[in-house]
Amino acid sequence: MSLIVQKFGGTSVATSEKIMGAARKAIRAQQQGHQVVMVVSAMGKQTDVLVDLARQITEQPPAREMDMLLSTGEQVSVALMAMAIHALGGQAVSLTGGQIGIKTDSSHTKARIQSISSERMRKHLDDGHIVIAAGFQGVDDDYNITTLGRGGSDTTAVALAAVLRADSCEIYTDVDGVFTTDPRIVPSARKMERVSHDEMLELASLGAGVMHSRSIEFGKKFDVPIHVRNSASFSDEPGSIIGNLPESSDRAVSGCALTKNEARISLTGVPDKPGTMHRIFSRLATVNIAVDMIVQNIGAAGVADIAFTVLETDLPAALKTVGEAARELGGEVSHDANLSKVSVVGLGMATQTGVADRMFRALADARVNIQAISTSQIKISALVERAQGMEALRAVHDEFELEKPPQSRASFGDGATKVERPSPVDVVSRLQRMEDLTIDDIRLDQTQGRITISQLPDSPGIAAEIFEAVAAESLLVDMIVQGAGRDGLANLSFTVPRDAVLQAVGVAMDAADRLGCGPVSSDATIAILSVFGVGIRTHVGVGARMFKALSEAGINVEMINTSEVRVNVVVAADKGEAGLKALRTAFADVMG
Ligand code: ASP
Ligand code: MG
């Protein structure tokens, strides 16, 4: 018998009418022959109300009691939902996280799921009941109530779908699906038919706030297709499917996003030697600050400049921590706030040329100055002034014509929502500590060389000119990193296949001359070490662990970029093998 998980978010259960509406959807699904598990959030803004109540009592409520309090929101919803189903003539049973057997660790207010037992749910389902599960909560080994972090009901839903090996996981919300970008900023944004887990992970972390990032990590790890749809639509209007395929196989860019509140911290003149990165980023990981857009410049005279972004809310804590590191290491700390990050995301860009230059050109034409650049396999991000953020987002959305549906679809074979699922035994064994960091692979790429252009003039259009010149020669660029330069002038480094380095240097020198940049340098043989996995960003310690391993092996890090699913570091060519070995050892305990 097929099994569906239906999750209803706060806005979808905000009133008694909406609860009745959700109950009808579940009964209808059951009548169509499915077993149904509902996962519900607290009604409307109830969780915020509870947070506020706690704050009225004390500025620092104990985390354990906070969880005790917040979990009540979902308990209200599940009870009312079960009553609604009874009132409509159906059979239902409501269950708390503890009653289901959702075991988490003990980190209150941000607990991670360790295991879920499916027995009790199965029994109720086989008896013909609709199971109504409280989202967002679990219990630790001592039966203390825990919560999974704000927005965590999505994660509950996808996790239940994974353990129950559900045929589909429907997320009912107040939007029609996943859009190419935020429609409030770009009215022409289009609902996507589907988006891949990887793209969604990037977009979710970029503030396309449709889904809790961790729920997408689950979806990817356990191959659960997630159907995001609007609970308000009467007809069964399809939403967007987050699955293992992108919307179209020939589009380079699928979506774009803006993270408004970014701040940058720069450290200039730190020693360019093994261990520097480790000292800085392990400290930040200890205080749980997620770092993004890490840019290190090729050192001159034994010193390097490092810059990275953090969310503006983390700025004070990050500055304190980095200040301590700088006192130990040497170097000067500065920062700028009022920045935003605009990013384009697409699986297709991993294999297509000419994405970067189009993005930079679009920004240049909108007179937007790029302050820093960082890329991953499937994402290009540019840091811009906050006042220009929305305009920048519109410019890139237009450039890639995201408002138009793709001409060809990725081919799905038969069952569009069916994918190869792991066997039950496999799922159960993988469920052991199911939210742990898993590293899928660690790889060494010795095919690339690096080109660096120094002292970029600080004005719009420079990156566009450079990458247009590069694209004109059909050079396939892999990593791009811009930022952290001397005297406010950024450096720009990029990598190309080794046999194209000479050609790229020629292009770079011409461009540098024309644009008034400083000298061009290159390294025809570099090694890129990549760590792939799920949860790379939400587990803040990954970067720290990498830098530690490399530092202990005496290997200097030259360039870095990070994404949700991968961290890349560039090291000297002759250190590649040793680096690979060091990383494999460092991550041995979490290799999938
Ligand atoms: N009620 C919780 C929150 O507001 C969990 C959720 O809605 O996903 O964060
Ligand atoms: Mg939510």
From TrEMBL:
Pathway: Amino-acid biosynthesis; L-lysine biosynthesis via DAP pathway; (S)-tetrahydrodipicolinate from L-aspartate: step 1/4; Amino-acid biosynthesis; L-threonine biosynthesis; L-threonine from L-aspartate: step 1/5; Amino-acid biosynthesis; L-methionine biosynthesis via de novo pathway; L-homoserine from L-aspartate: step 1/3. One of its GO terms (biological process) is homoserine biosynthetic process. It is an enzyme of class 2 (transferase). Pfam families: AA_kinase, ACT_9. Keywords: Amino-acid biosynthesis, ATP-binding, Kinase, Lysine biosynthesis, Nucleotide-binding, Repeat, Transferase. Its EC number is 2.7.2.4. Belongs to the aspartokinase family. This is aspartate kinase. It comes from Lacipirellula limnantheis. The lineage of its organism: Bacteria, Pseudomonadati, Planctomycetota, Planctomycetia, Pirellulales. The gene is lysC.
